[in-house]
C-alpha cells in the first residue's frame, strides 16, 4: 500500500468553537442553492478551525472526462467551487483519468462502457481549459487520480475492496434496481465508488462536491477516510440543472443543453428560450446575483414587470462570463433583431446546385433540418422563411439565385442556388 494509506490519525478537537460572523457568512454562501450539506455542524466547525488556524480547507471536485465538452449543467457545481475559492479555500479539480476506465455506474440501468486511454486523454485536454472559465485557474490545484490509483496494484486493490461489503454496495439505488430487474452488474462497477472514495483519502479532502446522483459515492469517501484514520470529509450535493425543455436534466444526449463554448449569440438565444418559471432556477443555480437582488427581481415581476427583461439580465450575465460584456451586448442586439424578423449579421453562406430545388431538399442540404420529413413538418408549422416571408407550400420549388433561409428562431443560411 502507498504512504497515503498509512496516514496519521487526524481527529478534530472535541471543543466546540464559536461561529464568528465571517464563519456564518461562509456557511451561508456554502449553503446557497445546495441540495444537501452533510454534516452541516461538522462543516461549520471545519470553517471555524480554518479561521482560527489560518489553514484553508481542502475542497475536492472530481469529474471523469467522459465527453470533451462541458455545458451549463456542469457549471452548477463549478460555480459553488468558485464561491468557496473566493472565500480563501483550496479547491482541487480532480480529473478521473483512472476511474474513467471503470465507468461511473451512477444513475445507470446498464453497465457504462469504459473509455480507452486515448479517449480519456483527448477529453481531459479540454476539461480544465473549459472549467477555468469559471474557476480561478491560478488558485486551482489540478490532480489526476491515476497518481495514486495506478500504484495500488492488485494487492492494494484487494485490500481496499476488503473495506466495503457487497451488502453495503447493494444499498445503492441503481444497483438495487438492476439486481431486482435481472440486469447484469459487473464486478468492476463495485470498484468505482471505492476508487472515488479513495481519492478523498489520497487528497485529505475536507469537503467533496458533486451532483445529487453522486451522494452514495461521496459517502463512501467519508467511510474510507474513517478507516484510514483521517478526519471525515463533509459532502455537498448540488441539484441537477434542468435543460431547455424544463423537464429532463441538462444533457448532450437529450439535446437540451447549452455548451459553455457555444457562440455568444446562440448561448443568449437558448437562455432566452427557457420558460419564465425555469428562469428562477437558472438564477438560483447559475447566477452570481445576490439573493437580495433575485428577491427584488421576483418582486418586480409580481408587480407587473415583463419577465423577459429579467431573463435578459441572466442571459447577459452568463454570456459575459463565458465570452465578454461586449459579446453579451451584441447578442442582445442580435436577439432583438431576430425577434423583429431581422436577419443576423453572422449568417453562414453556402452554395448548392440543382435549381429548381424542392424546399425540403434545400433545407436538408443546407443543414437547417436533419431530414426532408423534418423540413416538411417545419413548413407545416410555419417555421420556414425565405427572405423573411413565411413559406406554407411544402412542394415549393426554389429557383436559382441567392436567398436567406430561416428555420425556427435561430437557424439561418444564405444560400446561392444554381442549376
From TrEMBL:
Keyword Hydrolase belongs to the record: no
Alphabetized Pfam families for the sequence: S4, tRNA-synt_1b
Enzyme class: ligase
Subcellular location: Cytoplasm
One GO cellular component, as annotated: cytosol
Nucleotide-binding found in the keyword field: yes
Domain (RNA-binding S4) ranges: 357-418
Binding-site residues, ATP: 252
Motif 'KMSKS' region, residue range(s) on this chain: 249-253
InterPro entries: aa-tRNA-synth_I_CS, aa-tRNA-synth_Ic, Rossmann-like_a/b/a_fold, S4_RNA-bd, S4_RNA-bd_sf, Tyr-tRNA-ligase, Tyr-tRNA-ligase_bac-type, Tyr-tRNA-ligase_bac_2
GO molecular function: ATP binding; RNA binding; tyrosine-tRNA ligase activity
Keywords: Aminoacyl-tRNA synthetase, ATP-binding, Cytoplasm, Ligase, Nucleotide-binding, Protein biosynthesis, RNA-binding
UniProt record, GO biological process: tyrosyl-tRNA aminoacylation
Superkingdom in the source lineage: Bacteria
EC number: 6.1.1.1
Cross-referenced SUPFAM superfamilies: Alpha-L RNA-binding motif, Nucleotidylyl transferase
Catalytic activity: tRNA(Tyr) + L-tyrosine + ATP = L-tyrosyl-tRNA(Tyr) + AMP + diphosphate + H(+)
UniProt xrefs under PROSITE patterns: AA_TRNA_LIGASE_I (PS00178), S4 (PS50889)
Assembly and binders: Homodimer.
Family under the similarity heading: Belongs to the class-I aminoacyl-tRNA synthetase family. TyrS type 2 subfamily.
Main function: Catalyzes the attachment of tyrosine to tRNA(Tyr) in a two-step reaction: tyrosine is first activated by ATP to form Tyr-AMP and then transferred to the acceptor end of tRNA(Tyr).
HAMAP family in UniProt: Tyr_tRNA_synth_type2 (MF_02007)
Name the UniProt record assigns to this protein: Tyrosine--tRNA ligase
Amino acid at each position: 500500500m502507498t504512504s497515503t494509506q498509512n496516514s496519521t490519525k487526524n481527529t478534530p478537537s472535541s471543543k466546540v468553537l464559536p461561529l464568528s460572523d465571517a464563519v456564518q457568512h461562509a456557511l451561508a454562501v456554502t449553503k446557497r442553492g445546495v441540495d444537501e450539506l452533510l454534516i452541516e455542524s461538522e462543516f461549520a466547525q471545519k470553517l471555524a478551525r480554518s479561521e482560527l488556524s489560518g489553514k484553508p480547507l481542502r475542497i475536492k471536485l472530481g469529474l471523469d472526462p467522459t465527453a470533451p465538452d462541458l455545458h451549463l449543467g456542469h457549471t452548477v457545481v463549478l460555480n459553488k467551487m468558485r464561491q468557496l475559492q473566493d472565500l480563501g479555500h483550496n479547491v482541487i479539480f480532480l480529473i478521473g483519468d483512472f476511474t474513467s476506465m471503470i465507468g461511473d455506474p451512477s444513475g445507470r440501468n446498464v453497465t457504462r462502457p469504459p473509455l480507452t486511454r486515448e479517449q480519456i486523454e483527448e477529453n481531459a485536454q479540454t476539461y480544465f481549459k473549459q472549467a477555468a472559465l469559471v474557476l480561478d485557474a491560478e488558485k486551482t490545484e489540478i490532480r489526476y487520480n491515476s497518481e495514486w490509483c495506478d500504484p495500488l496494484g492488485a494487492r492494494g486493490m484487494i485490500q481496499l475492496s476488503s473495506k466495503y461489503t457487497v451488502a453495503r454496495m447493494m444499498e445503492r439505488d441503481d444497483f438495487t434496481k438492476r439486481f431486482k430487474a435481472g440486469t447484469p452488474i459487473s464486478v468492476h462497477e463495485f470498484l468505482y465508488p471505492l476508487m472515488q472514495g479513495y481519492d478523498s483519502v489520497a487528497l485529505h479532502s475536507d469537503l467533496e462536491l458533486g451532483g445529487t446522483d453522486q451522494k452514495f459515492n461521496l459517502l463512501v469517501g467519508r467511510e474510507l477516510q474513517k478507516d484510514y484514520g483521517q478526519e471525515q470529509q463533509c459532502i455537498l450535493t448540488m441539484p441537477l440543472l434542468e435543460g431547455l425543455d424544463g423537464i429532463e436534466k441538462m444533457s448532450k444526449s437529450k439535446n437540451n443543453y447549452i455548451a459553455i463554448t457555444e457562440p455568444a449569440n446562440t448561448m443568449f438565444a437558448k437562455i432566452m428560450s427557457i420558460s419564465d418559471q425555469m428562469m428562477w432556477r437558472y438564477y438560483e443555480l447559475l447566477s452570481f446575483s445576490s439573493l437580495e437582488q433575485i428577491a427584488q427581481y421576483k418582486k418586480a415581476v409580481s408587480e407587473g414587470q415583463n419577465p423577459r427583461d429579467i431573463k435578459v439580465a441572466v442571459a447577459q450575465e452568463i454570456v459575459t462570463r463565458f465570452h465578454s460584456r461586449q459579446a453579451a451586448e451584441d447578442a442582445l442586439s442580435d436577439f432583438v433583431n431576430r425577434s423583429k424578423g431581422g436577419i443576423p449579421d453572422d449568417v453562414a453562406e453556402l452554395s448548392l446546385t440543382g435549381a429548381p430545388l424542392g424546399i425540403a431538399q434545400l433545407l436538408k442540404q443546407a443543414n437547417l433540418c436533419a431530414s426532408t420529413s423534418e423540413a416538411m413538418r417545419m413548413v407545416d408549422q410555419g417555421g420556414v422563411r425565405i427572405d423573411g416571408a413565411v413559406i406554407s407550400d411544402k412542394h415549393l420549388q426554389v429557383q436559382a439565385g441567392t436567398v436567406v433561409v430561416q428555420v425556427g428562431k435561430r437557424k439561418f443560411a444564405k444560400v446561392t442556388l444554381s442549376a
